Design the sequence.
């Protein structure tokens, strides 16, 4: 699917101030796409502001060396969102995932653009520039830069390389194509340093994160004749260990490292006692479809949703849905 970037190019020609935002609990594709897009727009002489509903995860701060990513309520205000000429949402098409920023966006009548690669979508009343076949939103930002004839700086290259590398599991997921690697190579040519990105992402863990991972992995349980692996995280783990919610990132994939597993999920209790569930699949089970039943979404093989607590009940709901999906395809 080829995205027609004409609507965004037209806005680029007509507007000056761009607000960029993404989903709650942002990952590297969200932060990398925001920082990368801002740098590209700045090359066109535009002013940009990045405001998210969640604070910057500490392990991703290296992607934002100029501290451009602001947090609504602490370092940014609703008025700053409303001052923009254009609102650009990256890496999500969900009102729920936009949280408090989404509430502000609903009040505005300025043009809204969505750049995303997820299948699941709400009607954000926006110009949609989407390609569900693309491996990462960061790759779509690279496409836009090329279509608009705008250069990618070294800072943008680093951010966009991290976006693509993480959303492809460091180029090992099935969504990785020859084009993925060609784009990644071009980003390296423009200044991205894969060894540094990898070190910052995966070799800077706190002792609390390591201990948290130990607890989470000790709870891994198998079901569906060992085809499904799942685990859970009570909020008390974060409090006792001094760990962060972002310290659970990617741990769901550990379940797929067990021989014979075809799917996995992790249920993470939040401070407000809601439960974030991340689903993974490496079979025909469509976890985006499962996540959508709970008001979430994502991709066929990687998706997520937020369920009401308590934790034990949410685990059972997720387990029942995953077992049903696996058994129907047995």
Sequence:
């Amino acid at each position: 699917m080829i995205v027609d970037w004409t609507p965004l190019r037209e806005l680029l020609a007509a507007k000056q101030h761009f607000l960029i935002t993404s989903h709650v609990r942002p990952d590297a594709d969200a932060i990398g796409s925001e920082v990368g897009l801002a740098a590209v727009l700045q090359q066109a002489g535009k002013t940009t502001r990045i405001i998210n509903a969640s604070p910057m995860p500490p392990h991703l701060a290296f992607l934002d060396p100029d501290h451009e990513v602001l947090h609504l309520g602490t370092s940014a205000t609703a008025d700053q969102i409303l001052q923009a000429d254009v609102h650009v949402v990256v890496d999500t098409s969900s009102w729920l995932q936009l949280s408090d920023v989404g509430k502000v966006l609903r009040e505005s009548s300025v043009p809204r653009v969505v750049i995303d690669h997820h299948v699941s979508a709400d009607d954000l009343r926006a110009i949609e520039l989407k390609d569900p076949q693309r491996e990462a939103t960061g790759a779509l930002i690279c496409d836009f830069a090329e279509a608009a004839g705008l250069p990618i700086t070294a800072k943008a290259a680093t951010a966009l390389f991290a976006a693509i590398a993480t959303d492809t599991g460091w180029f090992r997921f099935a969504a990785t194509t020859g084009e993925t690697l060609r784009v990644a190579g071009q980003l390296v040519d423009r200044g991205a340093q894969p060894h540094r990105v990898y070190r910052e992402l995966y070799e800077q863990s706190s002792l609390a994160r390591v201990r948290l991972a130990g607890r989470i992995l000790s709870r891994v349980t198998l079901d569906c004749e060992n085809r499904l692996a799942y685990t859970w995280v009570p909020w008390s783990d974060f409090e006792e260990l001094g760990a962060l919610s972002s310290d659970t990132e990617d741990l769901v994939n550990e379940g797929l490292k067990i021989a014979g597993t075809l799917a996995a999920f992790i249920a993470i209790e939040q401070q407000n006692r809601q439960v974030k569930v991340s689903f993974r699949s490496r079979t025909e089970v469509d976890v985006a479809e499962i996540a959508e039943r709970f008001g979430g979404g994502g991709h066929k093989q990687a998706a997520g949703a937020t369920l009401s607590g308590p934790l034990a009940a949410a685990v059972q709901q997720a387990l029942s849905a995953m077992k049903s999906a696996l058994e129907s395809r047995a």
User: Anything to note?
Assistant: The chain has twelve helices and twelve strands. The first helix runs from residue 6 to 14. The chain has two domains: 6-201, 207-328. The chain has a mean pLDDT of 95.
